[in-house]
Amino acid sequence: MRLRIALAVLGFSAAAAQASPQILALLSTDGTVPLYCRGAVCSAELSAFCLERHRATPEAGTPYRAAPNAVLVLVVTGADGSVREIDARGLAQFASVRDMTAVRVSVDRRALGDAARIGIRSGAETALLPVHQERHGPPRLSADTDRVAGPVRAGARGVDGSADAAVARDLARALDILRHDDEAAAVRLAGAAQPVVQACATRVADETARRRETIGVYGHWTGRGIVGAPSLRSCLEEAHASLMTRLNLRFWNGEIPAPAAPRADPRM
């Protein structure tokens, strides 16, 4: 509920009539983020925030593409251990995950030859443009999107350098680990997000125990779980969305000034 109220304060509305949704800022990765591969598709979840408070929040699954001035690098490790770096702009596909606070990046492994491992790295001024769809009406003018992806995104560098951004990055990493490994690994490798992940793990364990006790008294516990039972994943997703929404609010309120000099972009 608090998150929905915060989104309303920002002026976000998924119901804005068929207009093109917000251009998003991709939070800098501060290093290389590993992609997890299933079959030919390798993907990861990355933190994001909106650069246009007057436009609609993207629906889950809204496709995005990297802005022309984005600096995105794929770090590809071959089967022989060799490492190469490739411009990711034409290879990486993006889609909003839950709202404007996270995107999923996907890469077709078959386009990268004998890749054994793949990672992605992004600098502090990367913006994502919504892929135009007929229902959005006429395409936006390039001068408009260039302004948002350029000066507006550059003015948001303070968000990338904030302490909360470090926590958000590690929350996204913990979610990826949780999807592909186990809870113990997610807690152990949470980095700056360790307190948040541990708090969620404790909260979920306590709530699950409480529900089991209640069902033991008032119903029948089958041992196969409880409908609507809390999960570490849902708790972390909510924590990440809340944190990125607060950062977005602070940005729009002018509480996070841009640094005097831009952070170094990743090498191409």
Question: Would you summarize the structure shown here?
Answer:
With 268 residues, the protein is α+β, with helices and mostly antiparallel strands.
Q: What would you note in describing this structure?
A:
The protein has one domain. 36% of the residues lie in helices and 21% in strands. It has seven helices and eleven strands. A hairpin with a 5-residue loop joins strand 8 and strand 9. Helix 4 runs antiparallel to helix 7. The longest helix is centred in the C-terminal third of the chain and has 25 residues. About 7% of the residues have low confidence.
Question: What's the arrangement of secondary structure elements?
Answer:
Blueprint: H1 2-10, E1 24-26, E2 33-34, E3 36-38, E4 41-50, E5 63-66, E6 72-78, E7 83-87, E8 93-96, E9 102-108, E10 115-122, E11 127-130, H2 142-154, H3 157-160, H4 163-180, H5 183-188, H6 194-218, H7 232-252
Antiparallel strand pairs: 1-4, 1-11, 2-10, 3-4, 4-9, 5-8, 5-11, 6-7, 6-10, 8-9
Helix pairs in contact: 1-7, 4-7, 6-7
Task: Provide tags for this entry.
four-stranded antiparallel sheet; alpha+beta; six-stranded antiparallel barrel; globular; 268 residues; 11 strands
